Amino acid sequence: MKLTCIPVLFLMALALFQPVFAQSNEPLAIVMTADGPIMPPMLEYFKRGIETAEQSHAEVLVIQLNTPGGSVETMLSIIQVMRASKVPVVVYVSPNNAIAGSAGALITMAGHVSAMAPKTAIGAASPIDSSGADIESTLETKVKEILKARARSLVEDRSAEAIKLAEAMIDDAKAVTAKEALEAGLIDFISDDTEDLLQSLDGFTVQMEDGKHTFDTKDIRTQNLNISFIEQLLLLLTDPNIAFLLLAIGVQGILIEISSPGGWFAGFIGAVCLTLAVYGMGVLTVNWFGFIFLIIAFVLFILDIKAPTHGALTTAGVASFIIGALVLFNSPGTPQFQRVSVPLVIGMGIFLGLLFFAILLIALRAQRAPVRIGVESMIGKTGTAKSFSHEAGQVQVGSELWSAEKTAESEKIGKGDFIEVVEVRGLRLIVKKK
């Protein structure tokens, strides 16, 4: 098969996994579930959902949203693709106890229709910088004013109270319940579930780019569009705990390869894990100053492997590793959902220390062990006399035949007697009867 055929076959295989929607006279509602931080992989999911809804001529696209917030840049891109959609987009904060926090609040406002489940919340949309800290006063004012202007443009057709509430979410990190949001006119419906929401939409009119659209959802059928494996995997890599674990495993793999070169597996796994960790950290809110402590920790580990100090450098490396990880992921101001678990960091640091203590013990034991190669390794081994006359003869030790002499203290050795090697002189063994 020619190599040029491989990409074509690959694309054909991918096509088999694309959702296929049966043609029907009944109106169609595409239902997505956006559960997790607003990160770049979520943007791809939103784009795919809108494209699918447009291609299938759906009546409505319902996005079930549950997010603590996320990247401002990703949020703005999601809002842009939502507002450009030819199919009405309904953002539904659900299920019960779900939140549309921070960036999720503006995404909810961006929907052509906004709805919430009864026991949900929305708000707390104050921006922070890429290191997780509060933005400095001048820059803070600029960013907040930009976001407030964007929020006003999204809710300009709503009540004055809704506009005031949207601004307060950005200025004062205010959050409200579904009931309070409905009373302020910030959302259109409170619905128990998706079916209830679709029934409430029947006959409701929204303004689209090409004119007004009145929903026909009386006999609508629904089709779920789940997040794909690749999107889920990329979203998983932006979990701080997963990124930290990949970083720790990657470091261990590389250090094992350095301490015992020649085996490619540990180095390969380490390189892959570090690559995936770098992707996650590139998306997450991290303080790169913590990376200095991690580098120091790795240097200390390597030094203790190459020049054993009975664990002193490894202990210092563990402390530096824990401090570096906490500074990297848990700096002041980092959103709670982007913080790494402290017990996980400490546990991994201790595990890393124990691992390198074990490596050190093996290295020390190897240094103190007697030589196991060359003729010196013959001392203490036993064998059989194949032929022996007077003081000399031939003996078999293992699978080898050696010339041998008996010691002065040894008893007389005859053919077939068991012997033990006590010395090696050139290519001749000095043996005694065992």
Give your account of this protein's structure.
By secondary structure, the chain is an alpha/beta fold. It has 14 helices and 16 strands. It has a six-stranded parallel β-sheet with strand order 8-5-3-2-1-11, with helices on both faces. Strand 1 (28-35), helix 2 (40-55) and strand 2 (60-66) form a beta-alpha-beta unit. Helix 2 (40-55) packs antiparallel against helix 9 and helix 3 (72-83) packs parallel to helix 4 (103-110). The protein is elongated and about 115 Å long. Residues 1-22 and 130-135 have low confidence and may be disordered.
Tally of DSSP helical segments: 14
Mean pLDDT: 83
- Count of distinct strands: 16
Distance between the termini: 68 Å
Radius of gyration: 35 Å
Pick out the low-confidence regions: 1-22, 130-135
Tell me, what's the shape? elongated
SSE topology string: HEHEHEEHEEHHEHEHEEEHHHHHHEEEEE
Class from helix and strand fractions = alpha/beta
